[in-house]
Design goal:
Elements: H1 3-31, H2 41-63, H3 65-76, H4 80-104, H5 111-133, H6 135-144, H7 148-159, E1 164-167, H8 169-174, H9 176-183, E2 189-193, H10 194-204, H11 209-227, E3 233-236, H12 246-257, E4 261-263, H13 266-274, E5 279-281, H14 282-288, E6 298-306, E7 313-316, E8 322-325, E9 334-346, E10 349-356
Helix pairs in contact: 1-2, 4-5, 6-7, 9-11, 10-11
Amino acid sequence: MSIDFIFRLLGAIVFCILGINLGTNLGTVANLGPTGAALTAEQYAFTLGLGGVLIGLLLTPYITTVPVRALSKMLLRISAQKLFSALVGLVVGLIIGALLSIPFALLPSPFNNILPFASVVFFVYIGITVFTTRENDIFNLLKSINGGSTLRSNLDSQTVDRRKILLDTSVIIDGRIADIARTGFLPGKLIVPHFVLTELQYIADSPDALRRQRGRRGMEVLATMQKEPKIPVQITDVEVDGTTEVDDKLVILARQMHCPILTNDYNLNRVAELQGVTVLNVNELANAVKSVMLPGELMNVKVIQEGKEVDQGIGYLDDGTMVVVEDGKHHLNRNIEVEVTKVLQTAAGRMVFARPQNGQNSNQPYRH
């Protein structure tokens, strides 16, 4: 039995009682007239009581459970810091509005009835708006006051719990998560929501061969991690209501559990960060651990193909970094020493530009 059905029954009972009382009173008043009424008080009560039952069955969820669910969904998307700031702004606005309503109450009618209420509403709105807009400045001020840092640290500890990490579908399919977790760099338990596992199974059963292969790879990676004693993996059955999108469910669940999301999905990364959820991106980690290269350094690289520009050659380092070699076309399928001339870092990764070391000029033979 759902909560909506229970509230419909309660609403039907309440509106039925109200309808019976209203019908009884209307019937009594109508029968007091000189000509009487076409219906008796009991008939009025029965008719309006039946109407109350129908109204209660139809409208009760829209005045009870639907607004509560909408409010709950909105609160889940608001960070603890912003919620605390709004609460402080509400209290400050109520205090200022109440103080100003005292002199307004001394004004002549109708101002003494309107202005006190209007002032309270106005200053509550201003208080909430100011405190939520300037929340960072307010917390920085609290940090400078004795005890403020403790308050902020408590909020931060509630915001992010690094002992648990939510995994999304993309990072499981990617497969690198198993190697990263095996090294021990991940600080906590890996949580796989049941709706992520369901999406993974859906991909594994896809009619498209490539998607089916990716889904099965993700299932194998997850099974491998579960067998590893060093990798704590937990499948949780916690469900998120109000949305059917897996990414939205992940963000809401991360806010509920106060834990970060591990992903390599760029769109999920951006959406989660905009909603105040900490994101651990595998691609950013991969770029961060690549060795630093400076112009003038020497390296050995194999030129495997021609580049887009004239006489350019393309090679790759062991970590997958692309190396664009000037005059590299003349050294196809050869390992040569090159000197780094420029390093370009982009969101997609890193690209190294180099030229052959002195003595390996374009006149040397090459093989196709």
